[in-house]
Amino acid sequence: MKLIVAIIRPDRLNEVLEALYRSEVRGLTVSRVLGHGGETERVETYRGTTVKVDLQEKVRLEIGVSEPFVLPTVHAILKSARTGEVGDGKVFVLDVAQVFRIRTGEQNEAAVTPAEPVAVSG
Amino acid sequence: MVQIDKADTAWMLVSTALVLLMTPALAFFYGGLVRNKNSLNTMMMSFVALGVVGVTWAVAAYSLAFGDGGPLLGSLAHLGLTGVGLEAKGTIPHVLFMVYQATFAIITAALISGAVVERMRFGPYVAFITLWTLLVYAPVAHWVWGGGWLMTRGVLDFAGGTVVHINAGVSALVAALVLGSRKDYGRQAVLPHNVPFTLLGAGLLWFGWFGFNGGSALAANELAGLAFTNTFLAPTATLVVWTLLDYFRTGRATAVGAATGIVVGLVAITPAAGFVSPAGALALGGVAAFPSYFVIALRSRTRIDDSLDVFAGHGIGGLTGALLTGVLAEKLWNPAGNDGLLFGNPAQLGLQALGCLSAALYAALMTFGILKVLGLVMSLRAVPRIEGVGMDVSQHGEEAYASGEGSILVPPDALVPEPLPAFTPQMASR
């Protein structure tokens, strides 16, 4: 059982969600975040004011998965979030001490959906 | 020689300003309907027309449209506004007539942008509307208003159903087909980012349209009063019918639907405004809701990405209005016009159809040609990667709703003017 945290480009979010759906990965949290991974800074000009946009908008995905799902999830994200340019983001795989499902009180492997991969195409 | 009339001049000064306001209004109407990341670019597509089409009009297009010429095209006599002075044109100064017509050319070109938003590059768009104004708008305006062949045959187009709306609507459809659909079209939900903008735009368009139709009498007289009244009545009926259609088909009266209904009503009454009775205008407005409503519903099920339904709204709305002019026109209300089908002159309907067909055909062929030629020397649309990032940042280096968080101020002397490599098309292909 692992927690997968992925930072991706906002404009790749739909592709990533589609790829995760195809890999039967259900249950995730998405948040809008700011950050940068060393990509070329963007310059914007508003009349006399010129700024370097240092922090880019990114999207963070958090997905709790059972062991058999770790690689399919990571592969789905790697494949769908990639544009080949600096700034595509990162995928972190973290160990998780314990998981509880609030509705049922189920724990650990039983609390992340699903327990077994059905079909992996991603 | 006809003298300049001061009342007419006063009304035409006001009308000209009213019509010019329609282009910023259109920017809001369109800008609200696109996604946040493309909203500035969409609005700029309208605003830039104020500049480039305005200049093109003054330099050459006015002469091609309204110079004394043959049945197909004006002349080169007024190039660079030569001979456009303070003398009377009708009962108003010639210069004022020229500016009034300029505001029509500007909004007509801007209307097309709705079909190519969120993907067409800014430079090619500017080149396109410049050429389109010269090669499509000016000739068609000459045919219908400048003494050309449709005018001499007696085709009725009071304020531009054919010249403005069918012309722009058909060109928009062709442009959408040549450009191809947006990468996300039909794959994910593409929703309006600011519906209040769209309502604001529709409201301001209606306001400006009183100058568009009321001013097309070119005088402050009874005819202007009739056109003004009809410009009020027709959209009221379209708005009611559109809202009822919305309600019975989806169970809700939508705001985007209301905004669209108003614009369709305005488009439909445009060719008829000075030829039909107020009761006729009400009927015309109500009927006009149906074709546009169902063409929008059908279009969105196809792969044709006329993104903001310019063809359904302006092409079909203009066609409905132009044909119904041939049905509802009455000499009783405008002796300079003609009777329509209902008043014993079925030939007028045929003439109207001829006007629609020839303008549509010409606009389609020329738009296709202009875009194909431009496509040989530049790439018309952004690559998918840039489309994903959004046209605001990639085309203009600005965001509509910048927070400033994470931005570092660059002192003026540290400016690096060259464009950033991340946003050139060559680097961005995936």
Structure overview:
The relative contact order of chain A is 0.31. Chain A contains two helices and six strands. In chain A, the strands form two sheets. In chain A, strands 2-5-1-6 form a four-stranded antiparallel beta sheet, with helices on one face. A two-stranded antiparallel ribbon of chain A has the order 3-4. Chain A has a single domain (2-111), classed as 2-Layer Sandwich (Alpha-Beta Plaits), CATH 3.30.70. In chain A, helix 1 (13-22) runs antiparallel to helix 2. By secondary structure, chain A is an alpha+beta fold. Chain B has a single domain, classed as Ammonium transporter fold, CATH 1.10.3430. Chain B has 15 helices and three strands. In chain B, strands 1-2 form a two-stranded antiparallel sheet. The longest helix of chain B has 31 residues, at 347-377. The A-B interface holds A 9, 11-12, 14, 34, 36, 39-46, 48-56, 83-85 and B 184, 187-188, 385, 388-390, 393, 397-399, 402, 404-410, 412, 415-416, 420-423, 427-428, 430.
Short description:
The complex is a heterodimer of chains A (122) and B (430). Chain A is of the alpha+beta class.
Give the SSE order of chain B as H and E letters: HHEEHHHHHHHHHHHHEH
Strand content of chain A: 25-35%
What's the CATH topology name of chain B? Ammonium transporter fold
Give the spatial strand order of the biggest sheet of chain A. 2-5-1-6
Looking at how many chains there are and whether they match, the oligomeric state comes to heterodimer
SSE class of chain B: mainly alpha
Question: First CA to last CA of chain B: what distance?
Answer: 67 Å
Task: Look at the structure and name the CATH superfamily of chain B.
Answer: Ammonium transporter AmtB like domains
CATH architecture descriptor text of chain B: Orthogonal Bundle
The pLDDT mean of chain A sits at 87
User: Which chains share the greatest interface?
Assistant: A-B, 26 and 29 residues
- How many strands, what sense, and barrel or not for the largest sheet of chain B? 2 strands, antiparallel
Q: Give me the side-by-side strand order of the main sheet of chain B.
A: 1-2
Number of strands of chain B: 3
Indicate the CATH class of chain B. Answer: Mainly Alpha
Query: What fold name goes in the CATH topology slot of chain A?
Result: Alpha-Beta Plaits
Unreliable residue runs of chain A: none
Number of separate helices of chain A:
2
